[in-house]
Amino acid sequence: MITIHSAPQRATPWLQRVRGQRPALALVLGFTETGLIPGISAAGATPADRRTTALADAEWMVNGPQPHPTFPLPPLQAGASPALISRAVITGQRIPLTVFNAGLPQAPTVAHVDLGGQPAQCLTTGQALPLSTVNHLFQAGLHWGKTLAADSTADYLLLAECVVGGTSTALALLQGLGIDAMDRVNSSHPICNHDQKREIVQRGIAQARLHWGQTTPHPLAVAAALGDPMQPVVAGMALAASRTQSVMLAGGTQMLAVYALMAALAQTDALPWHPENVVVGTTRWVAADPTGDTVGLAQALNACLLATDLSLGHSRFAALRAYEQGFVKEGVGAGACALAATLYQGWGQSELLAAIDQALTQKVEAEGRHTTEPKPTDDHPSPP
């Protein structure tokens, strides 16, 4: 159920260290107006839906199915929210969750830690966030990474995100750090919208008040110009936690950008960290996406990339089977949670699929006729 896609010399001992160990999940929420650009993301059918996606995901992750959620999981162009996968794992295996608000337009409706950030402007402005805010968020990440790593109730950390439009800010951050990632990132669309991403990133870099010459600007200045509030938080968390704990960056392209930011900060500011303790964990749909190059990007960054072999092809729900057609792919730590489920309690394909199908069944039942998810069909029944 686990495939190593890069840096096997680090992946193998990392997997051996955490097998049978209990993780804790940190979910860092952020917002960028980049996510409101028409067509930029499929994580919400309309820009209005995408404005509250992170709020809805946090509410679902903490509360699970409710008859009348404040923020229902948003309708998608196709597919179902990856929060269904993550929630199925953390409830089924009693994995603790902490929600962090790095910068949202409004506060989450569930218990959370407010990091004192703010939403990012569109990356096309070249001034996404004030540098002072990014510095503050990075320091908050360092503090919470050390704090979470010291918690004796968990043996390692999963660091997840929810930022709509985040693969575009990831591309911008990577390009700003001097890493050629054009046409290599993923998206929630079946066919990645590379042309659109390239155009907005080039506009952002042209507008940024930074000077790329013989040397790259300070990494946090790049994040302030082109990034989103999640990036400095998770980079700080992972850097600090890696000094004493194993860490899985829970995501695909977005977490590879965070890994690049970590490495750049460690080098620029001589910050201690332990790269051998850090891996990136994602889904098979991201790693095998023919319209991106996640594996090649991980290799270029010397990052250790793992992917769950989870398949939803035999789900009772068409919305979940849509993952096999390239819709959604990843988010809210779905891939890492599936990996952790295999590592912690040995869940394989049948256990994972049963838990995920049950999560969507409970959602449909709780919301009744108000549900936005299609009802199950019997043309692809689950195997016995």
Model description:
The protein is of the alpha/beta class and 384 residues long. It has one domain: Nicotinate-nucleotide-dimethylbenzimidazole phosphoribosyltransferase (CobT), large domain (Rossmann fold), CATH 3.40.50.10210. Helix content is 43%, strand content 11%. The chain is built from 15 helices and 8 strands. Strands 1-8-7-6-5-2-3-4 form an 8-stranded mixed β-sheet, sandwiched between helices. Helix 10 links the parallel strand 6 and strand 7. It is globular. The protein starts with a strand and ends in a 17-residue tail after the last helix. The model is unreliable at 369-375 and 377-384 (pLDDT under 50).
Quickly count the domains: 1
CATH class: Alpha Beta
Find the structural class using helix and strand composition: alpha/beta
Low-confidence stretches: 369-375, 377-384
Instruction: Report the strand count.
Output: 8
- Element-level helix/strand string: EHEHHHEEHEHHHHEHEHHEHHH
CATH architecture type: 3-Layer(aba) Sandwich
Distance between the termini: 19 Å
Strand order of the largest sheet: 1-8-7-6-5-2-3-4
Q: For the report, how would you describe the main beta sheet?
A: 8 strands, mixed
Q: Brief description of this entry?
A:
By secondary structure, the chain is α/β, with parallel strands linked by helices.
